[in-house]
């Protein structure tokens, strides 16, 4: 069982920054950790994913490359998403997700709202 608790969302002006945090708990080994987002009337999309099962490679959506940085504190099992240069199109609910080795799908946090205006 995996529990994911996000924090750090909020409202910011265009060009501003926010840092999202995701505290992961549970004993189930995780193969992937990442952030996804869903804007109004749009499908959920991947933002940044850390593939622990592949040498901890990180993959970013093209739309956030160079602006967002994914990092992880292994000691506390906390995943961070540093978001700089925020744009109005980054407005969405951001979800932390984890995929255990035993699952073919992601498990989700409750989401945190990010609004850029």
Tally of strands:
11
β-strand percent reads over 45%
Gap between N and C termini: 37 Å
Shape: globular
Summary, kept brief:
The protein is mostly beta strands and 117 residues long.
Description:
This protein is 0% helix and 55% strand. Strands 2, 4, 5, 6, 9, 10 and 11 form a 7-stranded mixed β-sheet that branches. It has a 4-stranded antiparallel β-sheet with strand order 1-3-8-7, with no helix packed on it. Strand 4 and strand 5 (45-51) form a beta hairpin. It is globular and about 40 Å long. It starts with a strand and ends with a strand. By secondary structure, the chain is mainly β. The model has no long low-confidence stretch (mean pLDDT 96). The chain has strands spanning 3-7, 10-12, 18-25, 30-38, 45-51, 57-60, 68-73, 78-83, 92-100, 107-108, 112-116.
């Amino acid at each position: 069982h995996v529990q994911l608790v996000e924090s750090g969302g909020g409202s910011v002006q265009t060009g501003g920054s926010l840092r999202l945090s995701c505290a992961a708990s549970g004993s189930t080994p995780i193969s992937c950790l990442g952030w996804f987002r869903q804007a109004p009337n749009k499908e959920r999309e991947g933002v940044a994913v850390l593939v622990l099962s592949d040498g901890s490679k990180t993959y970013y959506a093209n739309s956030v490359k160079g602006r967002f940085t994914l990092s992880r504190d292994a000691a506390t099992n906390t995943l961070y998403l540093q978001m700089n240069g925020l744009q109005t199109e980054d407005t969405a609910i951001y979800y932390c997700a984890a995929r255990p080795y035993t699952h073919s799908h992601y498990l989700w946090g409750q989401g945190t709202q990010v609004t850029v205006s």
